[in-house]
Amino acid sequence: MTTPVTAPAITRRHFMITVAAGSAAAAWLAAAPARADKAMVDEAMKALIGDATPADGAEIIRLDLPQIAENGNTVPLGVSIDSPMTEDTYVKDVHVFADGNPRPDVISFHFTPKSGLAEASTRMRLAQTQNIVAVAEMSDGKVYMTQAEVKVTIGGCGG
After folding, report:
1. 38-152 adopts what CATH topology?
2. Alpha-carbon distance 8 to 5, whole Å?
3. What is the DSSP letter of 114?
4. N or C: more exposed end of the chain, with fewer CB within 10 A?
5. Residue ranges per domain, the chain?
6. H or E stretch including 97?
7. For the whole model, what pTM was predicted?
């Protein structure tokens, strides 16, 4: 002989709590993600380079980015800095920022004179059309900056 198993009865109170929790979770998931802006990029940059004022690096830093990214989920990024990479003069760090992503800092590359060339490439996600900023810190304390706009047709970071 088998004994029937019955599910515990759900009370109205438990049902309402479950519905409220589900609604709150849905609202949280549907909310637009926060986006960085120029002020957040400046703050992140200051955290990395201190009070140094970047000079125009258009002649020194080369950003290899598409003008239009058809999919923001995977945008190729290449950066190279014109430097002899000797013990006396070399690129120490290159920092990349995006002013429309949820977080402004994208990546930092670290170099030494033994690197030979100050070049790196990767892929990044971009949430929307935005400026990509590259900052190069040199061994002599100089800092250079350049930027380029990438137009994103399909968002990558939830956009």
Report:
1. Immunoglobulin-like (2.60.40)
2. 9
3. G
4. N
5. 38-152
6. strand 91-98
7. 0.76
**CA–CA gap between residue 37 and residue 129 (Å, rounded):** 12
Q: Of how many residues is the chain composed?
A: 159
Q: Which range is least confidently modeled, 3-12, 18-27, 40-49, 136-145?
A: 18-27
Neighbour-count burial of 82, counting CB atoms closer than 10 A to its CB (0-12 exposed, 13-18 middle, 19+ buried): middle
Is the pLDDT confidence value at 30 over 60?
Answer: no
Burial of 139 (0-12, 13-18, 19+ CB in 10 A): middle
What b/e string do you get for 2-34 counting C-beta neighbours within 10 Å, with b at 16 or more?
eeeeeeeeeeeeeeeeeeeeeeeeeeeeeeeee
Question: Which pLDDT band holds residue 26 (cuts at 50, 70, 90)?
Answer: low
Alpha-carbon span 13 to 8, nearest angstrom: 14
Check if the beta carbon of residue 42 is closer than 8 Å to that of residue 83: no
Q: How far is CA 99 from CA 35, 42, 55, 106, 155, in A?
A: 8, 9, 19, 10, 14
- Span 12-23, pLDDT tens digits: 776 677 777 766
Q: What is the pLDDT of residues 37-86, one digit of tens each?
A: 888 999 999 999 999 999 999 999 999 999 999 889 999 999 999 999 99
